[in-house]
Amino acid sequence: AETNEVSNGKSQREQCWLADPLTSAYVLAGLFLGMLIISFLIGPSRLLQIVLLYIVPDKPDWKYAILICAGVAVLMVVPIPIIFMIMFVPGMVFGFGIGMVILFCGLLVGVSTAFCIGRWAFQDAIRDCVQQGDYEKAKLALKILETDEDSFR
After folding, report:
1. How many CA within 13 A on the CB side of residue 130?
2. In terms of residue numbers, what domain contains 19?
3. pTM greater than the 0.70 cutoff
4. Which of 85, 82, 86, 84 is nearest to 34 (CA)?
5. Dist CA 56 CA 64 (whole Å)
6. What is the helix, strand, coil percentage profile of the chain, to 5?
7. Is the separation of the CB atoms in 106 and 53 below 8 Å?
8. In a 10 Å sphere around its CB, with 0-12 CB exposed, 13-18 middle and 19+ buried, how is residue 110 labelled?
C-alpha cells in the first residue's frame, strides 16, 4: 500500500505549493482591507483624484497608449485588485473607440500570456502536485480531459 507520508512527517499535499488555499485568500483580504482603510482615511473621490493625477499625463500620445496596453496585459497575468481602476483610463483619455481597442489589445496579450505560462511553464508542476496529492476531483478532471486522442498532453 502506498503512503502519502514523506520523511518529515508531512503529507505530500501539505508540502505542495498549491496546498494552502487560505494563503491567497489572506493576501487578497489584506489588500482589500488596506485599500478600504485608505479609502476611509482620505475618501474614495480623493483617492481617485490622486490616482488619476499620477496616471494621466498632460498630453497623452501613442506611447502612453502602449504603456496603458502593457499595464492591462500585466494586470491580466498578475491581478492586483486596486489596479483594475486602470481599465477606466483609456476610455477617459482617448475616447470610447480608441480606448476599447487599447483595452482589447491589452486583454488579449495578457490573457494569452497567462495561458501560455500555465500551459507550458507550470503544467508539469501542477500535474505532479495533483497526481501526488489527494485531489480527487482534479484527478478525475485530468482523467476525463486526457482520455481522448486530443488530450492536453
Report:
1. 14
2. 12-145
3. no
4. 82
5. 9
6. 75, 0, 25
7. no
8. buried
Q: Would you give per-residue pLDDT tens digits along the chain (153 residues)? A: 444 445 555 555 555 544 566 776 777 788 888 878 887 888 877 877 887 788 788 889 999 999 999 989 998 888 776 667 788 889 989 999 999 999 999 999 999 999 998 888 888 888 888 888 888 888 888 888 777 666 555
DSSP H or E run through 6: none
Distance CA 148, CA 82 (A): 42
Question: Cell triple for residue 78?
Answer: 498578475
Domain assignment present for residue 66? The answer is yes
On whether residue 4 sits in a domain, the answer given is: no
Q: Is residue 57 one of the residues assigned to a domain?
A: yes
DSSP structure string for 41-82: HH-HHHHHHHHHHHHS-SS--HHHHHHHHHHHHHHHHS--GG
CB burial class (10 A; 0-12, 13-18, 19+) of residue 69? buried
The tally of domains found in the chain comes to 1
The torsion defined by the Cα of 66, 71, 125 and 142, in degrees rounded to 10, comes to -90
Residue 2 falls within a domain, yes or no? no
Please say whether the beta carbons of 139 and 131 come within 8 A. Answer: yes
